[in-house]
Amino acid sequence: MKDDKGIMGANKEDEPLFETKIARGGAAHKLFSFTIIIGLVLIWTYRLILIPTTSRRHSWFNGILFFADVLLGFYWIITQSGRCRVVYRYPFKDRLITRYKEKLPKVDIFVCTADPILEPPSMVMSTVLSVMSYNYPTEKISVYLSDDGGSELTFYALLEASKFSKSWIPFTKKYNVEPRSPEVYFSHQNTHMDNESSFAHDWTNVKELYEDMKSRIDSVEAKGCIPGEIVDQHKGFSEWNSKVTKHDHQSIVQILAHNSDPKAVDIEGNRLPTLVYLSREKKPGWPHNFKAGAMNALLRVSEKISNAPIILNVDCDMYANDPDVIQDALCFFLDEKKGQQISYVQYPQQYNNLVKNDIYANVNLPINEVCVPIIYLTMPSLSYI
């Protein structure tokens, strides 16, 4: 019996953390692509034959048409590289949790913003709160907000978000609500809720707290300055003075919560994720390299604070529709056989509130779907961010 258990345990340890399956319908798509290529070759041949037979007056026009057909054809051929062998990837989160348990790695989450006008602080804070409430041990999560605008309004909003997170994080995990972005979650009216349930009571209280927080942030943003009584509440505001501008300021690093601090706990006594505000130094005439420079600054600062081996980068106007995104990604990184071959996991993006006819091409059909007459094959997807 002992030998059998040992064999069973060994087999469990050898089980992969993810699998890859080839999508059905690949042969039909290849046949469809082959017919298109034949059509392109025939068009190119026709153009080449037509050019010498036309008058000099029209030959230049046919030459332009041939050039346009060649460009269009090569563009179509290149776009088929992601459609020739469509695969689905399935992570096994249960195996990950069973195998690693307390040995799960730390994760540093980077959120970048640059302008409190173009990127309203209340929207950015909703993103920050969504990543703080992922289904992952909070003591192993560190969230860094990079503010390239060096705005005290953004710092104030993050301070308000850190207070609200003490109620939001336990609420989301207790009831497993989705999505974890409070702005998106509360924008949908919950019509199936029993008003007498404990969930309804907690939902109402947390929503009121969120609306109060958002109202305070929007009010300060409208005024364009932080009231004196608020400035006196946190020493971090001392970093801002009359000489600080968006393009000229010193480095500002403020740790609003650290998971090793016994005081950094939510309303239920659970530890909060580490939360850090960063605004890197900027000087006129010095190239700051935009978001690449912000990421480099985040790497240097996070090395001194948490130094996690895994980094998750999230745009400030995005949120995860699945709170298990970290576990999904770790299934690829920590797989014993193929994990060493993987260094980057990309989540597809999906946009809400699309305009009519999607004139900005936000649906991303060429990336997320393979379109063949009568057949639609979904591209690999873990979770949308």
Automatic annotation (TrEMBL):
Pfam families: Cellulose_synt. One of its GO terms (biological process) is cellulose biosynthetic process. Its EC number is 2.4.1.12. Keywords: Cell wall biogenesis/degradation, Glycosyltransferase, Golgi apparatus, Membrane, Transferase, Transmembrane, Transmembrane helix. It is found in: Golgi apparatus membrane. Its main location: Golgi. Mn(2+) binds at K291, D315. It is a multi-pass membrane protein. One of its GO terms (cellular component) is Golgi membrane. One of its GO terms (molecular function) is cellulose synthase (UDP-forming) activity. UDP-alpha-D-glucose binds at E119, D148. SUPFAM superfamilies: Nucleotide-diphospho-sugar transferases. InterPro entries: Cellulose_synth, Nucleotide-diphossugar_trans. The chain crosses the membrane at residues 31-49, 61-78. PANTHER family: X-BOX TRANSCRIPTION FACTOR-RELATED. Thought to be a Golgi-localized beta-glycan synthase that polymerize the backbones of noncellulosic polysaccharides (hemicelluloses) of plant cell wall. This is Cellulose synthase (UDP-forming).
